[in-house]
């Protein structure tokens, strides 16, 4: 159970990219818990099915999975349009899908750079483009997932950090452009969230302790911490918040 309940989210429709695992899966569960209809896309059908299998029946009937590679923009836009038409319009768009694969300046090729931007940045623009006709009908909330790495200038994945930095600027400009249609656009900047992927690949005891030393709050960040912030930004509780970056990193940045 999430710590906050938002009655205005009930029966609204949320579309979430990268919802099959990690932060995205927790967001899917959090919005279902609030009574939302949720459509999520992911390129890993097996992990998405694992999520669907563990949902209670009352949540599963409001959850809709579509396999999709977010680098395939036309398919992604078509799925947004189809989902909105089928499920009472569209009220919340969350651009969560990302790739934080480690890479070095000297080794990254132009093709690899383009692929990383196609995953980490380009969808945030084109999902908004597809969602706009639906969000304009009653207003809504776009939440773009950034990263505190853009504020800290973390090393080890410069193309990723560049994309996350651009997401902040994109969110601010879309907030101004879409505000007259009562559409809010905000950026959610998590710190180092202890997902299974992070634990399996990079979260050594030494690395985690080093991160905690830099945080004001000496606890690791969970997927639930980020999902709780997303619920707030999606709800009417934040109705006058737009063009902002909400940092969830325990006071590190």
UniProtKB/TrEMBL annotation:
Question: What Gene3D superfamilies does UniProt report for this protein, alphabetically?
Answer: NAD(P)-binding Rossmann-like Domain
- Is the Oxidoreductase keyword given for this protein? yes
Q: Which domain of life is it from?
A: Bacteria
Matching entries from InterPro entries are given as: NAD(P)-bd_dom_sf, Sc_DH/Rdtase_CS, SDR_fam
Q: Which UniProt keywords apply?
A: Oxidoreductase
Does Oxidoreductase count among this protein's keywords?
yes
Question: A Pfam family for this UniProt protein?
Answer: adh_short_C2
Q: Which GO terms describe its molecular function?
A: oxidoreductase activity
Q: Which family does it belong to?
A: Belongs to the short-chain dehydrogenases/reductases (SDR) family.
Record-given protein name: 3-oxoacyl-ACP reductase
Please give the organism.
Answer: Lacimicrobium alkaliphilum
